Fold Aspartyl/glutamyl-tRNA(Asn/Gln) amidotransferase subunit B.
Amino acid sequence: MTDASPYTVKGATGDWEVVIGLEVHAQITSQAKLFSGASTAFGSEPNANVSLVDAAMPGMLPTLNAECVRQAVRTGMALGAHIHRRSQFDRKNYFYADLPQGYQISQLYHPIVGEGVLEIEPADAAPKHIGIERIHIEQDAGKLIHDQHPTQSYVDLNRSGVALMEIVSKPDMTSPEEAGAYVKKLRSILRYVGSCDGNMDQGSMRADVNVSVRRPGEGLGTRTETKNVNSVRFVMAAIEHEARRQVDLIEEGGTVVQETRLFDPDRGVTRSMRSKEDAHDYRYFPDPDLLPLELSEEFLAECKASLPELPDAKRARYVAAGVPVYNAAVITADVETARWFEALVEASPKSFEEIAKPASNWLISDLFGALNRLGRDIADSPVSPRQGGELLSLVADGTLSGSLAKQVFEIMLETGEDAGAIVEARGLKQTSDTGAIEAVVAGIMAANADKVADYRGGKDKLFGFFVGQTMKAMGGKANPGVVNDVLKTMLG
């Protein structure tokens, strides 16, 4: 990859650069909320998952969920970030109808995770390191529902108290493509670690997008924050629109105001929501109900030991085993695909180095093609990794040719049967019987004496004709390698 041309916004008075930072809110994987035992199940009836703590009933005190702490630490470690042995919870004070306490418990002054880095690979560009400023733990607010009554809004507190990691990047991104690559890579790592499911469509991962523009070489401009953007595509679209809006505003003599905005995906535009508050507006102070959080060396060692092989390391291992770079990137981008691939190669008696490359080709070409045709994803594949491994083994040991394997695979998709059973029941074994192949070749040569003469006269390209005729005559069951050897001998 090479450095791509820098992303610029063309204005009437010249070019402008874009500066982007992201604050990603990731719901921590846990059966219970951050400070209560209430369920975090998605899709429950409104207010079904609300404890007395979540509803801020008088006298109810928070109790910290240790699993949420563990997952935040593991995430920080996966990003190579500094883990603070001592952190502190603060109250962020503001009034909103879906915030029953009148404050949100967060971490401002002493977050649990400090600086780290995330390497991204934007399309057609060199890898780039994006700085992580911090990761802090906080509780989510509830949700207002405006479409259930003509004159009233309803409050659903199911999300109130749900544990979030806020992962704050440095303003190191300079294009929508880089921001999109950052969100994809971060989501991939969270899923590998198991600290967040990354389901942006369900609200368990969403991004606040900070955008400013400046002339090349100048200092940072005034930024706006577009809240709660819930897809990679929308993050990129919000950046494009907001950068264009700011450039047009400045060039028309206006001034960019520091504010919070919302993205309208139907129109592809951002609109003003409220003026942007600073930290002092929230009157932060240490939460008096929660002691400072102190992490032991034993706890940190356990978190470190529990980390899985991460996508970059897994991809490097695959490439070293002969998997094409593109295949390795596709397979490791999603943890479910990587796990499926690992199970696939483990189902084969061949070594990883022997089977990894053909297995990756089959997965990306044959299986992905079939799943796309059926409208399914890999978690819903009608063929299991064990069945796929058996099919690949039959190809590797010469029982099936490539074309026969495709026939068997289609039958597997339709019936759910194992490859070996299909081969036995339908007589689809590849034949390497030299005598049988010689007999068929002899008949084809007799029926095409003119082409035999042309081949022997120097028309080498006719060799493919004889291969095709032989395979056709044998119903695709002939071993292609044996067919080639026999033809070379008999054609002279």
